[in-house]
alpha-L-fucosidase (Sphingobacterium paramultivorum), 502 residues
Amino acid sequence: MISYNRLMMTLLLAGALLAGKTVSAQWTGPRKKVEQRIDVKYGPLTPAHRTDEAMERFRTYGLGQFIHWGLYAIPGNEWEGVSARKGAAASEWIRTWSGPTAPKDWKNTYDNLYKQFNPKGFDAKLWAKQAKEMGAKYLIFTTKHHDGFALWPSKYTGYTIKKSPYKKDIVKQVVDAYTAEGIDVFLYFSILEWNNSNYMGKAPSTPEEKAKFNKFLEYTRNQLLELLQNYPQIKGFWFDGTWDQSWIQSYDFTYKLEKELREKHPGLIIGSRFRNDEFGKRHFDSNGDMLGDYEQGWERKMPKEFEWLEGRDWDCVMTIPPNGWGYMKDWSGIYTKTSDDLIDMLMNCVSMNGNFVLNFGPDGNGRMHPGEDKLAKEIGDWIKINGEAVYGVRHAGLAPSKLGYFTKKEDNLYLTVFNRPVNNIVRIAVPKNSAEVPVEAVLLQNGQSLALKRSDIGLDLDKNTYYDIVLPATFSADKAFVVKMKLGRPKGQSDQLMDAKM
Ligand code: FHN
């Protein structure tokens, strides 16, 4: 018999579906607690916190590289001198260009771009070398985006790299080159396809529609199994384009498919974007349990507070321009993030146990944008000096500092300072009852020892005690720098001060 809760959930979902709304996850605050758990048949297939080797490795990555590459790289967000800005959602969405600026018969032009795709300058080894120099420990690479064009010679469609003048398998070159550099590879895969005649956004309703969409589902399954077979080194899939009702309603199929992929490839990592439960709940099921191995909703945003994450694994994927993941020829007139912005975001993420994944959009010839080259170099230079504070670190368990971000590894505490105090005193607040406190401090970049002393300021009702680290007045920095502290047992007790009686 169907329970009351389940019935209510079903009615609510039906209401949402009728109203044409997608039931989406919540990314802008602490997650609302589910008041009463209900029976969910299509919930998570893996534990909330996997402890196998692959997942433990995922937790050490710190920095990743995303690459969006496909036919959209040819126009680079413009066509015959006309910009697609304001006409298309983002550079890799240029096929959807509409409005007064859109070229005539644009979709058709776009769908034929594959006939020109011949990136003679593409060298996967160069990309991988650059990624390594930048400090990326994993790559997420677009095997096919929403246009459906496959960068590998898939047997299941004619719309692939094999049909282009370039012909060669790009996915293979990328997987091999990055793996050879010791960088783990995850494959981005868009479920939705704009120009596949079997795809539809709405849930199929007639027998004909159902037959068509079933073909699409089988095609998706075949392609995914093909990718696993062709590129067995990969560590995971990064799914996208899973928000349409057709996919949402296919929960029985997607559940079985996830199971099959995991069985075929032990250790495979899949984020929370792949599928939903039978009530249409995406990322988290109706009980609030995560559907996948890590939270995959932090796109161009980060949690404000560590507590929001409730211990879950996560990654943050970030563009350099405000939005736009594919190649954008013209970076003028928009804000493009600086290496200071990006290092700040990186440290913010790792301080909350997340990975930061920076996106690159190479051009139609296979070259990175010069602006991306510059940023990769600057980030790499910084990480070479400060990587100890980035990789394999965990949340430090201290209250956030106004000066920067804490990370921790064993008995080392790191503070990456972005806001240098004018008095040169880096003050660390530690709870009074803490079993470990800073006992030594150095500048990570050169090992220079820094003076450190406890400062019992005596603020009324204060639960903290303070450790003051003095930066040499002669020390100058034009980028964030790291203060590395050794943690040890506190020497002596903090002063017992009477709280004010008011
Ligand atoms: O629509 C895509 C977009 O083009 C891009 O690929 C990003 C990357 O996370 N994902 C989708 C939007 O969420």
User: Anything to note?
Assistant: The chain has two domains: 41-389, 404-488. The radius of gyration is 25 Å. Residues 1-23 have pLDDT under 50 and may be disordered.
